[in-house]
Fold:
Amino acid sequence: MQALELSARVCLPLAEIELNAIRAQGAGGQNVNKLSSAIHLRFDIRASSLPDFYKERLLALSDQRVSSDGIIVIKAQQYRTQEQNRSDALERLKKLICAAVKQQKSRKATKPSRSSQRKRVDTKVARGKTKALRRKPPI
Structure:
């Protein structure tokens, strides 16, 4: 695998993604102090070969994983092996980029039907009549 495939047309070369092995946090017995099984992924959006549209959408994200310098930082330490954490980090990067680029459907304004408007007014009138019966009669 030489590139991370984002879509049918867009691929991200792995050379642009910086992957560092670090020590994982949390429980793990003696291995936690000896092995570097967690992966720290860094990806510079501005210096990448992504299309400009992708870059604009990623830089506009209000996500804590995207720094103000335009660098995506992902730390993967869920699994016990470095290979699984590496593939997890790459998959999370792919999901982040695809979610940022996904087009939102435009909302079409709709009007309520005449019958629904009539039903609404009728129920309001009926509720008003019920409440009017609770009042004290005029003297």
Observations:
- Residues 54 and 101 are 6 Å apart (CA to CA).
- The first strand starts at residue 3 and ends at 5.
